[in-house]
Amino acid sequence: MNIRIASRNSALALWQTYHIRDLLISKGHSVEIITMKTKGDVILDTPLAKIGGKGLFTKELENSMLEGSADIAVHSLKDVPTTFPDGLKLACVCSREDVRDAMLSMKYRSLEELPKNAKVGTTSLRRKMQILASRSDLEIISLRGNVNSRIAKLKNGEFDAIILAMAGINRLKLSNEVKFTSPINTIPAMGQGALGIEAVNKKEILEAIEFLNDERSVVETTIERDFVHTLNGGCQAPIGINAKLKGDKIEVEAILGLIDGSEILRDSKTYPKLAYTIAGKNFADEFIARGAKELLKRAEEMVELSYIF
To answer: If residue 124 lies in a helix (H) or strand (E), which one and from where to where?
Structure first.
């Protein structure tokens, strides 16, 4: 079967697409890759949350599938909204890379070593919230662009450190580009480290790619995505959620709060593996009972005010 893959044309997106292409070819399929830019790739002078947190890196790829010019799209699962247009679905979740965030720097080994008022670059409100909760003296600056341009800004001295996902660092071997790479103690985004395959809802396509599914990743990310969906948080909300499957148990931890780190809700819980389809919603409901939706609303208002002043 010939399978057409829609892909962003950034270095990381193409690495991911080529990885899936090679797996499909190994099963006897032929593959055509169709590259394009998404809204999130084009608008680089504005923080992600300001231009809309949902579907910034997926909408154009989805349109290509809905219009019939592509069959599947390869995404970083953390960028994928929890709802899909009619005719499309999250068909596969592939085996997961390192889920952690990491600090890259040319001068400093860790967040703890950063001097007061150090400039730290990240696009993520989730990362900003958690870093400021432990280091309120740091200056967190929005950092947009592909990974190569972000590394260049770090090397040019515009930032003392930048924060990226370890998965992308490992896939593109970015540790070779900087002096120091150190994982940090943050709770990651839903689906971080996993590739999600979105596909047209056609039996022949779904059957051809079914082998890409990884059971562990499906279990873990189902909980994470259900948690965020129940909170109506979106991809850019200040929410961290991580589920770890260990034997017949799943350990889950989550965090959410104000983007300046001044007020946070955090909890952890263990569920039986068999409960993975309801665990995310149940965990979110516990957060909601503690005022999570009100706190996220205040976080959203704080973001909006930061754009005004």
So the answer is: none
- Beta strand pairing call for 249-257 and 264-272: antiparallel
Q: What angle do CA 160, 163, 166 make, to 5 degrees?
A: 135
Q: Which positions ≥6 away from 264 have C-beta within 8 Å?
A: 129, 133, 255, 256, 257, 258
Instruction: Name the strand (E) or helix (H) holding 84.
Output: none
Which runs of E-coded beta strand occur in 160-307? Answer: 161-165, 180-183, 195-200, 239-246, 249-257, 264-272
> Cα angle at 122 between 118 and 125, to 5 degrees?
110
Structure tokens, 179:
């002096």
**Residue 86 Rama label (left phi>0; alpha psi -120 to 50; beta):** beta
Percent of the chain with pLDDT over 70: 92
* Catalytic one of 41, 45, 71, 79: 79
Position 305 confidence tier, pLDDT thresholds 50, 70, 90: confident
What values do phi and psi take at 174, rounded to 5?
Answer: -75, -20
Q: State yes or no: pLDDT of 51 exceeds 50.
A: no
CB atoms under 10 Å from CB of 215, counted, come to 11
The closest alpha carbon to 94, from 29, 17, 14, belongs to: 17
Q: Is 79 a catalytic residue?
A: yes
Q: Are strands 139-141 and 88-93 parallel, antiparallel or unpaired?
A: unpaired
Q: Would you say the pTM of this structure is higher than 0.85? A: yes
